[in-house]
Amino acid sequence: MKLKVIGCGGMWNKEFSACYLIDDCILIDIPNGCCKQLLLQNNNISKINDVLITHFHADHYFDMPFYLLEKSKNESSDVNIYCSKNGKNKIEKLFKLGFPSASKEVLKKLNIKYEFGNNFKINDYEVFKVKVDHGNLKPAYGYVFKKDSLTVGFTGDTAYCTNVDYMASICDYLICDCSFILGNNAHMGINNIKILAEKYPKCKFITSHMFENTIKEMEKIKLKNIIVPCDGKIIIKEK
Ligand SMILES: [Zn+2]
Fold first, then answer.
1. 142: which strand partners?
2. CATH, range 2-237
3. At residue 75, does pLDDT exceed 80?
4. Which of 66, 193, 194, 233 is deepest in the core (most CB within 10 A)?
């Protein structure tokens, strides 16, 4: 797996919002401004056929209309969207709002498939989703990718909950919400990540969705299995 950080920040700082690209073709979340950010980092949007959405907050899916419009210009019109059941309606509404005259033609041209299930395959990966606890926003999901002996998880936005422990217990790498210095009922914080890193020494924790103060504070934490990424970095390169 090749895992590139498109963005590791929260929505108010200069780091781009949390977004990750697997093997140049699978995108985890599609925040506002994502297509521009992908281009700035020299990624090829036309190669991306699979988009997984953790939950429906604007900083996780608002660039979907731009992505769909871009894909409609390509030869390959296959688009697979993995999300909660209410996602199809939200995405279509957003597209129609953004591009009212083009929406009908573009949505017809594209071969969009929605996957609402909990277990599926993407390329050679076995993927499953787990429910997480993002306060009032329900449902919110994390995703786990498995191929051969490598297991990589994404918590999405979440408070510290049982399924975060579960993901940490099975993953080699866990890309995890670390929005704040102290976690709350919707997001994890450095205090939670420190506990996780000590409890699961075999898992490498890659902090994500970090706000500015959190990034500064993270520089002081020296735990071998915590990785603080930056935008544009390739953080996993394993067969
Ligand atoms: Zn959120």
1. 130
2. 3.60.15.10
3. no
4. 193
Question: What is the per-residue pLDDT across 171-202, written as a single tens digit (0 to 9) for each?
Answer: 999 999 999 999 999 999 999 999 999 999 99
Cβ atoms within 10 A of the Cβ of 78, count? 12
Residue from 206, 149, 202, 199 nearest 174 by CA: 206
Q: What is the pLDDT of residues 152-167, one digit of tens each?
A: 999 999 999 999 999 9
Q: How far is the CA of 32 from the centre of ligand 1 (A)?
A: 13
Q: Could you tell me whether strands 19-22 and 2-7 are parallel, antiparallel, or unpaired per DSSP bridges? A: antiparallel
d(CA 39, CA 212): 24
| One-letter identity of residue 104 | K
Encoded tokens for 31: 């925040």
Antiparallel, parallel or unpaired: β 140-147 and 150-154: antiparallel
CA of 209 to the centre of ligand 1 (A): 9
Provide the pLDDT confidence category of residue 76 given band limits of 50, 70 and 90: low
Give me ligand 1 centre to Cα 57, in Å: 5
In which band, very low, low, confident or very high, does the pLDDT at 29 lie, cut at 50, 70 and 90?
very high
Instruction: State the distance from the centre of ligand 1 to the C-alpha of 59, rounded, in angstroms.
Output: 7
The structure's pTM equals 0.96
Cα of 4 vs centre of ligand 1, distance in Å, is 21
Q: Which of 23, 29, 50, 59 is catalytic?
A: 59
Domain ranges, ordered by start, for the chain = 2-237
